[in-house]
Design a protein that fits this description.
With about 130 residues, the chain is an alpha+beta fold. It has helices at about 5-15, 20-25, 45-60; strands at about 25-35, 40-45, 60-70, 75-85, 90-105, 105-115. It is globular, with a radius of gyration of 14 Å.
């Protein structure tokens, strides 16, 4: 079984390639995921598929892991460089953010935004500039 670091790196790579099936294959059926560009959360692979499809229709996000730290309790903290562009190529956000993953039995069970105080709030600052 691959370790959490490897699984998370594969998920970022698949996301950046827009390989939804490749990314979802690394997740549990009931995975919980933040809707950074809309606010709130989605649960389950098909909800993530629908959310990412909407997101990629409005923005061109790219996330590159800079540091991955595994912690006790199945949590993995990932500092990422997040570049969000409009579909026309304009830079909307260029920042470092924190993602916190929960990995269970070799699959991603949840991802949370580590620097957002309220996950039920609206879109994160990176997506506040709608095109």
């Amino acid at each position: 079984m691959a370790d959490a670091k490897t699984i998370i790196e594969q998920a970022y790579s698949a996301f950046n390639k827009r390989d939804i099936d490749g990314a979802l294959a690394l997740m549990t059926q009931d995975v919980s995921w933040p809707k950074a560009s809309e606010g709130g959360k989605v649960v389950g692979k098909e909800e993530i598929r629908a959310y990412w499809t909407r997101q990629w229709g409005e923005f061109d996000p790219h996330v590159e892991p800079l540091a991955i730290t595994e912690e006790d309790g199945g949590k993995t903290r990932v500092k990422v460089h997040q570049l969000v562009k409009s579909l026309q190529g304009d830079v909307l956000s260029d920042s470092e953010v924190l993602h916190v993953f929960t990995v269970n039995s070799g699959l991603i069970a949840a991802m949370d935004l580590g620097d957002e105080a309220d996950p039920t709030a609206g879109p994160s600052a990176a997506f506040a500039h709608r095109s």
